[in-house]
Amino acid sequence: MSERQSDDQVEALPHDNRRQVLYWRLLARLFDPEEQPALERAGLAVVEDIGLPAALLDPQASVDSIVQRHPELAAEFDGLMVTDEDQGPDADPDGEVTRAGAAEVRRAALVSKVLLNVFSTGSGAVSAGQLSRWQSDAGWLERALGCAPGDLRGGRGSGGSGGVAPTGTGGGGRTPDLSRLIPAIGPELGALEADLVKRMHLREVLADPKLAARLTPSMSLVEQLLRDKNNLSGVALANAKDLIRRFVDEVADVLRTQVEKATVGAIDRSVPPKRVFRNLDLDRTIWKNLTNYSPEEERLYVDRLYYRHTARKTTPQRLIVVVDQSGSMVDSMVNCTILASIFAGLPKVDVHLIAYDTQALDLTPWVHDPFETLLRTQLGGGTDGTVAMALAEPKIAEPRNTVVVWISDFYEWRSQPLFDSMAALHRSGVKFIPVGSVTSSGRGSVNPWFRERFKDQGTPVLSGHIRKLVQELKTFLG
């Protein structure tokens, strides 16, 4: 059979069969880097027949490069893989979106492109350009899932996709429900990125300013830089510090927005409101002056202006953040260091920061500068929380005005003595918040022995998105 006859048969296939051709090709390329000629020809015929560029089938072509040549496709990638009921009235009762057959074939081609570029990472050494391209493609996958680039990898929220700026939903302000994904997609993307970073000759890349400039800061990259910082010097060290600072600044912008969404402290009505325009209570002013309305003139005469109270009561509070800096907790270490610096900038909040593995380090003098704090961390392997408790306990002067946030997976060398100390803090009136993970993906394993005892004590382990911890702290400090 000639190649032309093969193409004609592909064009005559029902839509479901065309989709299968594209997905079989995807699976073949994921599990075997070698091309399967029959599947490649069939896939090319399907793609060209539905009016999509042949570059979609090229594993070396990034999504950025395709969108730059075909900008109309950017909007199609946004929300491409969101199929829940939030899509609108076209969704069926099972949550699946009803689409025309031809549209589903087109969607299958775009989905295949994103998945192949992200999950087919090859082997061997990785260049700065390859890492940058993968980060960009991962950003497009996150957008396809209804998130902002960087969200699922524990990153910066809306930044870091690289290349083409978002033109569609990019998350659209709505948090998609990804709980049905098995395995959870965020941790898997983070693991892939971490593997690529490990396969880079990072020291050589950092020593070359041009190559270093191509790196996009990410949690995986920052982790590797923190582990290797003592082995760097000169230009390489300067470039490493620049990448860490860029990442810290980007994450801080995201977390600062979350903290500032609600002002800490209750309204203090004993303080007269400031009589400025921004505090004018227009609704109350109109309501209180309605008796002065003149129907003949159709005019409201205002005798008195009313203003909103904006002053807030602030009781001095002490926040003690204890962070496990062992190798398994790097994501939490970075997030909580930045978060502590943000809360340290709030009025009447006295923040202390302690990091530990088998030794404890009081980082309070640098708590306002998360960059300097991170440079002083030493990522270790063991975990002995009793040494951190020895530093934390003397800092508690007024238990009922103190909150202790303890971030760890709680796989401890001396479990019982540490728990006894934590229970004593709780009984004294300290607000004790054990936290199992403080990441964007929410991934984290917590020692079941501690989890059960914290639950029985009435201080269950807080795990999941960092927004949960932000809300807990603001509730207490308010």
Strand order of the largest sheet: 7-6-5-8-9
Number of helices: 19
Number of strands: 9
Q: How would you spell out the order of helices and strands?
A: HHHHHHHHHHHHEHEEEEHEEHHEHEHH
Radius of gyration: 27 Å
Average pLDDT confidence is 77
Number of domains: 3
The global form is globular
Q: Major β-sheet, in short?
A: 5 strands, mixed
What would a concise description of this structure say?
With 478 residues, the protein is an alpha/beta fold. 46% of the residues lie in helices and 8% in strands.
Explained architecture:
The protein has 478 residues and is α/β, with parallel strands linked by helices. The chain folds into three domains: 3-200, no CATH class; 267-300, no CATH class; 314-477, von Willebrand factor, type A domain (Rossmann fold, 3-Layer(aba) Sandwich), CATH 3.40.50. It has helices at 3-11, 15-31, 37-49, 63-69, 74-77, 101-119, 128-144, 185-198, 202-207, 209-212, 219-228, 234-260, 282-288, 330-344, 370-375, 385-392, 415-428, 448-457, 466-477, and strands spanning 266-267, 293-294, 299-300, 312-313, 317-324, 349-356, 360-362, 402-407, 431-435. The strands form three sheets. Strands 7-6-5-8-9 form a five-stranded mixed β-sheet, with helices on both faces. The termini are far apart. The model is unreliable at 1-8, 85-99 and 156-173 (pLDDT under 50). Residues 155-174 have a biased composition (Gly residues). Residues 316-474 form the VWFA domain. This is VWA containing CoxE family protein.
